[in-house]
Design brief:
By secondary structure, the protein is an alpha/beta fold. It has 10 helices and 14 strands. Helices cover 29% and strands 28% of the residues.
Amino acid sequence: MEIRSVLPQSDGKTNRQYRMATDTTDNAIELNAVTKTFANHVAVDQLDLAVPTGSIYGFIGPNGSGKTTTLRMILRIFQPDSGSVRVLGQTKGRTADDRLGYLPEERGLYKRMRVGDLLKYYAKLKGFNDCQAHIDEWLQQLDASTWVNKRIDSLSKGMAQKIQFIAAVAARPELVILDEPFSGLDPVNMESLRAAVLLLRERGTTVIFSTHDMDMAEKLCDTIFMIFKGKKVLDGTIDSIQSRYPANRVRVRFADPETQLPFLPSVTESFQHGRLHMLTLRSADEAPAVLQQLVAHGELHLFEVVKPSLHDVFIQIAKPDPVELSA
């Protein structure tokens, strides 16, 4: 029988080094007591935030949580009602800072332009005139070199999304904000873009990664920030976030596929997927007792204690309470 504790896969990124925040000089972005309201709605409420230079920093939160408002204050599209926003050492600046690249969720490219001309145009807008070699490198990195002379309106969605990404990084920005960069991509293009984001970090670029894809955030980000109802509810590494939540779920597989799960008083919820049984326990401390009961019931091939994934944590925080459901 195999007994083990399972952590969500991290693709080994915890072994890679990046500059963590030790003082203000190590933070690409700092928000201090930032509040933003629209009419009577408080979109962001007394938010403190520090994004370490050279890290991939995940922004997560349900729709309407204040995530987009926070990003727009970092981009200086919005100004806070109170508090301070420091971006790359500046508390004041232009919306289109040449040191910042932005991939918006709403894609926008000049459809009649050719790929190569469009990328050079975006790079030169940011003051990077000698950009051809850099653009060629990114096109090769994303397997897009053959698209240089194609018009934007002839590209597939996946191809266009890659070009939009290159446009965001064409001017070698110090800080890149990616808003749902993997939305709608097939697995091959998704992996290609993920490798590109990791390459950005290896070159020292700070990346803010906003997404609803919890699995990708878990694999890609050094630090995760979650905003809910305008307030910060999570901010830390995956390991530190998981340590706050009980590992009260187990996977079970019997040697005999015909063996049925017995009645277990400690189990509050269970479901079966093929030969696997997923059990939710009242408490993580009851796992050893459940294991003994299952061994007495039948031969086991697998008993896994599963730590909560980022998806599990997100659901636990963001799910509506009974009062909201009844309303």
